[in-house]
Amino acid sequence: MTTPKLERPMRPRRLHDLDKLARLTRDLPRFLRAPLSFDQALTTVRRRLAEREVRFLRIVERAIYERPTSPYRQLLQLVGCELGDLRALTAAEGLEGALRELAARGAYLSFDEFKGRSPVVRGSRTFHFRESDFDNPFIIPHIEAWSGGTRGPRTSVKMTLPYFADLAASTAIAFRAHRLGNDEHAVWLQGFTPGFIYAKLGRPTPAWFYPSEPLSPRLALASWYIALLGRASGHPLPRPRLLAVQAPDRLVDWLAKRQRKGRVLCVTTYASSAVRVCLRARERRLTLEGVCFITLGEPFTEAKRQALDAVGARAIVRYAFTEAGIIGYACGTPRASDDLHFLSDSYGLVQRPRAVGADGPVVDALLFTSLLPTAPKILLNVESGDYGRVERRACGCAQGAAGLDVHLSEIRSFEKLSSEGMTFVQTDLLHILEEVLPARFGGTGADYQVIEQEGEHGIGGLVLLASPAVGPIDEDRLRSPFLASLGGGHAVDRFGARIWADAGTVQVKRDWPVPTGAGKILPFHLLGTGPGRDSASPPRPR
């Protein structure tokens, strides 16, 4: 049986934009004039930890059980779980115990199901959901962002200023753990959303650099207006300036100039971008002592950490995905380069073993549940497309002292290819490997393969393998249509493909595709698997 899609009346985008503009004009000055102190943040986080189960049940009641069209209500009914049942289950097993039981029964969503890219099949039932079906129905947005992916519709993520205030509370605890005071916080990303969090903490944000042209007219206009509102309220916010990813010298110069003035600096950017800046500073024999990079978008490996250490810089790793928000911040006393504190005040977390593809390895997929009433999306056991190690332990840093004692590490993606902070969904890349390239260069989908690898200094890269059986192919002729196909959809696709082209992320190698330990040829290879799992890890191309 198939559940039909429900059509909703749509308002013209221009009217939605005018509504958001009016709300920003009314609310942003008040937001900026009331910065959140550390003591307020600590009180907030501890209260949220004490009320996790109460807040979970409140959100589930209002956003799921009281909404007949909620996708989660349909899944919960399918597994025979009414509100009273869920209350009893949570009381008996705790939040994570209840979530784990629901996932085992089938009340969860894979990455593609949540994105609306594939139907939800549970037993004899099939459901078709749209990404907008998971929007939080109780928020009235101030801004709108778009998540990553390729080909097809993007996930619209509507955010509010109270949501940024909620994220600021967890961020303040993380900053205390890393001994950050009133540092200046620059942003080197295409969007400025971290800037709202820093503004709520009263941290000055002297610059917003964006890494690739062009900035969309809507974003440029909105940014100009937000900067104007900030200035009028006595809390200046920066206008965007281009700083191309392939020109790290400009940021090195900007950082050196601020250092000479005695400024303590943080830069929020993609992990590979931070590494490129540090490598260029080292080549110029400059120090970045005191500079802190808040890194996101890619795994932060030991090689990346060493590149920052070499010039005196340090990193605070931030783990997030657009639909959920910030999931974790680096521990102040880490055991590994990617040892993070999971923000259990804001989310529930369980793991579910699942195979990657028909013949791939089994990984412990991370499933997240939203506990913030301001969250853009309602999440109930939703995959992020990642797997990793989860453990509870004391560490002695400020985040642990606040009660955030769950640690995440060894986080890797099984659904996405990520490099230079850009993400493309593997299910969509199949179209390129199995249809676009064979149609143009010959062979079949089994003759092409993409392998993620960590290159020199920890900068991520991709190797596009093309079997020698295909015959002579010029590397540039193969790389160009691969990138062009990646960038053939939404504007964010074009931006991501352009970043990969500029950074030289994709290398072409003429070699036979690498088989798994079972002899299967998969279109993508994971470098390693989840902790406690045995699976062959393919050799890295040289």
Percent in helix: 25-40%
Query: What's the arrangement of strands in the largest beta sheet?
Result: 8-7-6-9-10-11-12-13-17-16-15-14
Mean pLDDT: 82
The largest β sheet comes out as: 12 strands, mixed
Query: What overall geometry do the principal axes of the alpha carbons give?
Result: globular
Structural class: alpha/beta
- How many DSSP E strands? 23
* Rg over C-alpha atoms, rounded to the nearest angstrom: 23 Å
Low-confidence stretches: 1-11, 148-153, 418-425, 516-521, 526-542
Tell me about this structure.
The protein is α/β, with parallel strands linked by helices. Among the domains are: 2-133, no CATH class; 422-525, 2-Layer Sandwich (GMP Synthetase, Chain A, domain 3). It is 37% helix and 22% strand. It contains 16 helices and 23 strands. It has helices spanning 13-32, 38-50, 52-65, 71-78, 83-105, 111-114, 161-177, 193-200, 217-232, 248-260, 271-283, 302-309, 398-401, 426-441, 475-486, 491-503, and strands at residues 2-3, 120-122, 125-127, 143-146, 156-159, 184-188, 208-210, 240-242, 265-270, 292-296, 314-321, 325-330, 340-342, 347-355, 362-370, 382-392, 406-413, 416-419, 422-425, 448-454, 460-466, 506-510, 524-525. A 12-stranded mixed β-sheet has the order 8-7-6-9-10-11-12-13-17-16-15-14, sandwiched between helices. Strands 22-21-20-23 form a 4-stranded mixed β-sheet, with helices on one face. β20 and β21 form a beta hairpin. α1 (13-32) packs parallel to α9 (217-232) and α10 (248-260) crosses α11. The model is unreliable at 1-11, 148-153, 418-425, 516-521 and 526-542 (pLDDT under 50).
